[in-house]
Each structure stands twice: as structure tokens, then as C-alpha cells.
Amino acid sequence: MYKDFIHIFVLSCTKATYLIEKQLHARLNLIQRLQLRIHLSLCSYCADYGKKAELLDELTKMSVRDNEVSSLFTPEEIDDFKKKVCKKINLS
Questions:
Q1: Three-state secondary structure string covering 34-62
Q2: pLDDT of residue 72
Q3: If you average pLDDT over residues 63-84, what whole number do you get?
Q4: What is the average per-residue pLDDT within 8-15?
Q5: Higher local confidence (pLDDT), 62 or 6
Q6: Could you tell me if 34 and 9 are in contact, meaning their C-beta atoms sit under 8 angstroms apart?
Q7: Which of the residues 5, 21, 34, 77 could staple to 73 if both were Cys, CB 3.0 to 4.6 A apart?
Q8: What's residue 70's pLDDT?
Q9: Is 43 exposed, middle or buried (0-12, 13-18, 19+ CB in 10 A)?
């Protein structure tokens, strides 16, 4: 009984990192927010991961807003990449 109660509040690091990533794109429900907040208060590794994930997300959004992403690759490079991905998928 006690173990079941603890698992409601204490997440694994795997689940915590999933929720960290999820909250960058969607709103977590109340239970998920509470679980994540508790986990982050106990786990410095996941707290650091959360800060880095937020920074990377913000940098990505900034580069998309500034239209830098589209200028990094030529259309030929993008087509070549797509062909390589399709080839790998078909080989699997």
C-alpha cells in the first residue's frame, strides 16, 4: 500500500525527462505538474536537464523566427538527406 502511494508522487528519471519535454509543447495536467515538481526538487540531474531543454527549445524557436534554419541547407542537401532517410527506412 505504501509503495503504491509513493509511486503516485515519485517519478523515475525517465518519466520525468519525458514530462520535461512534453511540457515544452503542451500543458501538463495537475498530477503530472505536481509529480514533476516533486521529482525536480529531489533530483538535480533532471533539474539541470530541464534547464538545458528549455534553453535548447528557446534557441530553436528563435532560429525559426529569424528564418535561420532554412538558410543552413541548400534544397539539394535537403533532398539528398530525404533520399538517405527513405533508403534507410526501406532497408530496415
A1: HHHHHHHHHCHHHHHHHHHHHHHHHHHHH
A2: 72
A3: 76
A4: 83
A5: 62
A6: yes
A7: 77
A8: 57
A9: middle
Q: What domain count does the chain have?
A: 1
Instruction: Give which of 49, 42, 46, 56 is closest to 13, Cα–Cα.
Output: 46
State how far the Cα of 37 lies from the Cα of 48, in Å rounded to an integer.
13
C-alpha cell at 4: 503504491
- Domain residues for the domain of 74 are 2-91
The angle subtended at Cα 90 by Cα 87 and Cα 91, nearest 5°, is: 85
> Please, how many CA atoms are within 13 Å of residue 46, restricted to the half-sphere of its CB?
21
Q: Please state the pTM of the whole predicted model.
A: 0.63
pLDDT tens per residue across span 24-44: 999 999 999 999 999 999 999
Candidates 56, 41, 55, 46; CA nearest to 20 is 46
